[in-house]
Design goal:
The chain has about 70 residues and is mostly helical. The protein has two helices and no strands.
């Protein structure tokens, strides 16, 4: 499996976790604050993974261009 596919799968999993964590549920205010903080952390991690995937894709394009010439 390519690195791009692995990072996409990882991103989707972290996004799913963030969506589950941020879904409304009858919780105490303290518990909902903790869940919201965790969801923000997971979303930040997903953004980092997306940025890394973009960098990998750009590098792969450069390598492919070099080999085609």
């Amino acid at each position: 499996m390519s690195i791009e596919k692995k990072s996409l799968i990882s991103t989707l999993k972290t996004t799913k976790k963030a969506n589950v964590a941020s879904s409304p549920a009858p919780l105490t205010p303290e518990a909902s604050q903790v869940i919201n903080k965790r969801a923000r952390v997971i979303n930040k991690r997903a953004r980092v993974i997306n940025k890394r995937a973009r960098v990998i894709n750009k590098r792969a394009r450069v390598i492919n261009k070099k080999h085609k010439v």
